[in-house]
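For the sake of transparency, this paper describes our internal protein records without simplification. Such a record has a labelled line for the sequence and another for the backbone structure tokens. Nothing more is needed to write down the fold, since each code stands for a local backbone conformation. For reference, a complete record is included directly beneath this paragraph.
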Amino acid sequence: MFPGKDKPLEDKEFPDEADLAEDEQEMVLLSRCPACGELIYEDAQQCPHCKEWIVPPGQLWRQSRRWYVRAGLYLAKTILINWIVWLILGAIAVMATIWGLAR
């Protein structure tokens, strides 16, 4: 997948001692890709090995919560519209019955 992946490192590719000084060294946080299990940077949005998108744990819940709210609002709207339609149809039927009795 990566050219030269199995080739050993040359001396010029190793980090210098100054690069490894503790006062200047930044912590690189690594985690495992949930899809392929390879080590990736923790803030990576896509795995460089398997090309799968990395979804933060809380993001799925937020998306599903939005879906539930939208579905609930749609269901409430549908029930309300059906109730109003049946109320209007019932009122028309009552008025037609009263009109028929009055004649």
